[in-house]
Amino acid sequence: xxxxxxxxxxxxxxxxxxxxxxxxxxxxxxxxxxxxxxxxxxxxxxxxxxxxxxxxxxxxxxxxxxxxxxxxxxxxxxxxxxxxxxxxxxxxxxxxxxxxxxxxxxxxxxxxxxxxxxxxxxxxxxxxxxxxxxxxxxxxxxxxxxxxxxxxxxxxxxx
Length: 159
Fold this sequence. Notes:
This protein has a single domain (about 1-150), classed as Alpha/beta knot (3-Layer(aba) Sandwich).
């Protein structure tokens, strides 16, 4: 299975980088996992609704350029579907069983994802109704993907 985490913005925090590297190492025995970092669109603090859509649109174009037609896309969005770890594991297992060997998880920038990216997504995922920094979501997502593989293999993992 090939899993991509396509994300907007550069990761600067050393502690997050270390955690992400750890989970990428752990995941390497289960799947090929890559993190694709795309530049965020520079924008002033105060934006109009139209300017926000323009920023999301430009970031969305970058995201869509990294997704092939045969990739199953899961967009992380606050309004997405909430699942338990076991449910996520089951869905990843079903995708593998039915020949969806390429999965891309999309993490947008600070303004979220464009409508075009949301239309391309086959599914959505929300970890909470709370807002998290998109840099932290990379680590949380990788941990949950790792947990999913452990669950699917019947391997022990702390609860």
